Amino acid sequence: QFEMIDMIEKEESIISEEEAAQYDRQIRLWGLDAQKRLRGSRVLLVGLRGLGAEVAKNLILAGVKGLTLLDHEQVTEESCRAQFLIPVTAQGQNRAQASLERAQYLNPMVEVKADTDRVETKPDKFFLQFEAVCLTGCSRDLMVRVDQLCAQHNIKVFCGDVFGYHGYMFSDLGQEHNYVEEKPKVVKPKTDESNDGPEAKKPKVDPNETTMIKKTASFCSLKVALEVDWTNEKAKSSLKRTPVDYFLLHVLLKFRTDKGRDPHPESFEADATLLRQIRDDVLEAMGLSSELLPHDFVSYCFSEMAPVCAVVGGVLGQEVVKALSQRDAPHKNFFFFDGMKGSGVVDYFGPK
Amino acid sequence: MVQLVGSLRKELADSLSACRVLVVGAGGIGCELLKNLVLTGFKNIEVIDLDIIDVSNLNRQFLFQKKHVGKSKAQVAKESVLQFCPTANITAYHDSIMNPEYNVEFFRNFMLVMNALDNRAARNHVNRMCLAADIPLIESGTAGYLGQVTVIKKGLTECYECQPKPTQKTFPGCTIRNTPSEPIHCIVWAKYLFNQLFGEEDADQEVSPDTADPELSWNPADTEARATASDQDGDIKRVSTKDWARSTGYDAVKLFNKDCLSESLFKDDIQYLLTMDKLWKKRKAPLPLDWLEIQKLGKILEVTGTGLKDQQVLGVAGYSQLFSRSVETLRSMLADKGDGAELVWDKDDPPAMDFVTAAANLRMHIFSMNMKSRFDIKSMAGNIIPAIATTNAVIAGLIVLEALKILSGDVEQCRTIFLNKQPNPRKKLLVPCALDPPSANCYVCASKPEVTVKLNVHNTLVLALQDKILKEKFGMVAPDVQIEDGKGTILISSEEGETEANNSKFLSDFGIRHGSRLQVDDFLQDYTLLVNVIHCEDLEKDVEFEVVGDAPDKAPTPPSAQEDKNVANGNKDSAEPSTSSKAPAEQDDVLIVDSDEEEPSSSTMDVRMESGGHKRKLHDAETGEASAKRQRLDQPLAADEEDDDIIALD
Q: Residue B482 in 3-state DSSP?
């Protein structure tokens, strides 16, 4: 039985020459220790559409131990154009399978696997073999269930999606996520006693010296984060500072649950109408005005925009790296990106 | 009714397929950018990069695999992209964008130019070309976790050169030669030593004790006297290292006798420094190494712990052995190359790196500094900027989003966007800021740009004007200079050979004096600059010229919106190619790191191009200061940062 402990066991083994050469530029950023932790981590990635491919690339390049690509869908003509791992000749194949070869080429030192099952059919114990799980294109219910399961076993959970020009990521690193932050060492300046002669240059304390500070962060579940109560006065007053993308997310997740797919350009009219209806329902149920999401919101949430996948995939990928390496403060707990405005905000939804 | 093609309106999607765009650089940002462009629907893309693939690129430049190491980045990038988008029309150039072939006409072919560069010289150049061609340019840069994107449109926004950028740090000669107080001083010294012994001789890179150190005397006249005296004195200690080498008749045995050389550098020279007792009144005096004693300590066992091999710090004995070994290797490499040969320092060349590691550490030990590992020294000596895939991925995504705005005709929606490591107090991780209008007195994009330069007309060579001032400082590639003397005397011609005879003359030889004006043209960049000359005889030591109006170089200023704009302008941004320690300086210890061989002037670059086999490091993403210094944590709201709460933007 696989036992999870708080600190991810880093392999004491030596980093090979090959790894040192290839990872040189990132080791110089996050340190050898972090790289070793990455090297000991297995990650599950669900969904190989545009966002999934970006996350896969980022994690494979970072040098995790293993990455499992899980996707039951087949490659269509559209999905060929949507991501860069699937060859144009792969139509009809399974998406994860089709992405495998190019994904592996990104970094032969990572064990990349493809799994063609539906994620809903996976038993609990399937998830327990990973240090981190990343869910894209999943239904709300599934994400909530997997998050609940994984948090119990101290597995880091990440969710993310891209809808047109908008995208989000969510993380649940558990109630007690330990990490370190590197801070410059504070050097007290010495007072110069003498006044005669040229200014003396004393041997300085190396200005680049740093120290590692231990910290802890606490995360809530996805369920709780999505079920924030907006009817009380305090919540209402914070509404002005709340990214509307949080509500957009609710609408899009509801659409996905109801229709079993995301809004599609081919059925733009019908989908747009449905989206507006869902908006009204969702916001009303929350006790909020449907004007929170302006009428034209439908124009910007169809399909996955490649550059938006790149931005969200970059932020999400880096969050996974931070969590696995236990280094640097994690974003808590949502990141919302609006590709029209170029704004990216981190905000917390959940209990104080 | 909006017709969508994927996520885009049909009109936009159609214009994407039709337009031609240029991507300058196929490295960290470039690979991500090419992928984003084709996936978004761009069809006609040209990409240019002069570099070849290195194994250290593979952690982020995902279009490349190990089997591609040594090949052209532009070429392999194209091939990789075609794998997942065979219908894309990509043209790859393994070339420098500063090649005159890429003239204004060339740039006019494109609707949009996107930079994915890592050095300022190329950025300045592309900036000018895009201004000349009146094509929108998207600029970007990354360093570690930080990044930024901005849009440059002639007449509408600031150009890349509107805001003065901090120039690269250099250190005064006396700090390097006499009184180092930080590891970086010792590393610079070691690199100078490499050049003195094996490489291109440079009068600004002397390593022997400096008797003209201003500190030795508070009386300037005294310093003058000493400097003159050292010229006349035949004492071997006071001549340049290269001259000393010459004086031994390049006797291989004597010159490269490891013990003889080492004794000289680490014992004799140090003992000489000790005689300059004024220097040591308030400083810890250096301790000469007893070289022969150290040799007797025998072979050092290298202990491997859990760290990288390169992260170990050896002892004095270890580094003395490393020094001897590397000198021997370099000596024979030099001999193999034949008469008049020179080696060029390269951080990825093991004996060259060993040499600097050893020499710098021995000097650090002598000056009571803790020695450093090869890993750390390589970072400093090689100006390495740490880099990861995700930062580049985010920035490249933002570039394409800005591109879409431009192509939709929504330039007023364009923004400068900063990527932070942590969200600011307003929760923003990505911070869009309004673009600034052009600066009225920008020396590049103003209607009749003009600058004023202080120098000594009697001892500034025409060559120095061309290389250090016009090319290095003012970013020109092929300047033509006319003196406004009523006769239109041509001082410098960009045509090869035409004014070569002038190079070794002084400006005053051509009647240039205080108040003279020079008209400088770079026809490739379609750029004319008027230079006003102020004659000055008391510039600081090691300073050849000063540009009036330049902010004096200071210690890193406290984080501010202004500086933040320059934060991640690229990996090479702060490693400006100033090969001399001649930048103006107010305080010794606030100066700029010496530029690196990684960034030679274009003429040297051409030579390297021809030497084949030799790897092009030029635009490898290395440079400047540690990104840690640039972290913008807890920033107050920048003056022009958008705040949706307060201002309704839509």
A: strand
Distance CA B278, CA B223 (A): 13
Which token pair is B156?
Answer: 């509408």
Q: Is B374 annotated as ligand-binding?
A: no
List all residues 6 or more positions away from B350 whose beta carbon is below 8 Å from its beta carbon. none
Between CA B93 and CA A70 the distance in angstroms is 38
For residue B87, CA distances in Å to A306, B81, B492 come to 17, 10, 48
| Phi, psi angles (nearest 5°) of residue B23 | -110, 120
Q: How far is CA B408 from the centre of its chain?
A: 36
Tell me the C-alpha distance between B468 and B479, whole Å: 12
φ, ψ for residue B496 (rounded to 5)?
-60, 135
**Vertex A46: Cα angle to A40 and A47 (nearest 5):** 135
Interface with B, mutate which of A309, A311, A318, A327 (most B CBs under 10 A) = A311
Angle, helices B316-337/B350-366, rounded to nearest 10 degrees: 140
Instruction: Indicate which residues of B carry an active-site annotation.
Output: 174
> Rounded to whole angstroms, what are the CA distances from B316 to B298, B328, B504?
12, 18, 45
Per-residue pLDDT of chain A (352 residues; tens, 9 = 90+): 333 333 444 445 678 989 999 999 999 999 999 999 999 999 999 999 999 999 999 999 999 999 999 999 999 888 777 899 999 889 899 999 999 999 999 999 999 999 999 999 999 999 999 999 999 999 999 999 999 999 999 999 999 999 999 999 999 999 999 999 998 887 666 555 444 434 444 555 566 678 999 999 999 999 999 999 998 888 888 888 899 999 999 999 999 999 999 999 989 999 999 999 999 999 999 999 988 998 889 988 998 999 999 999 999 999 999 999 999 999 999 999 999 999 999 999 999 7
pTM for this one? 0.85
Six-digit token string for B335: 């001999």
Say whether A82 and B39 touch across the interface (CB within 8 A): yes
- Cβ-nearest to B394 among A62, A203, A311: A311
Radius of gyration of chain B (CA): 26
Chain A residues closer than 8 Å to B628 by CB? 182, 184, 208, 210
Chain A to chain B Cβ contacts (< 8 Å): 238
What is the SS3 assignment for A136? strand
Q: Under DSSP, is residue B3 helix (H, G, I), strand (E, B) or coil?
A: coil
CB contact under 8 A, A164 and B7: yes
As given in the structure block, the two tokens for residue A243 are 């990214």
In sequence order, what E strands does B228-290 have? none
Which chain A residues are within 8 Å of B588, Cβ to Cβ?
Answer: 201
- How buried is residue B562: exposed, middle or buried, by Cβ count under 10 Å (0-12/13-18/19+)? exposed
List the structure tokens of B426.
Answer: 């307003």
Residue B257 CA to residue B545 CA, distance in Å, equals 40
Residues B211, B232: Cα–Cα separation, whole Å: 12
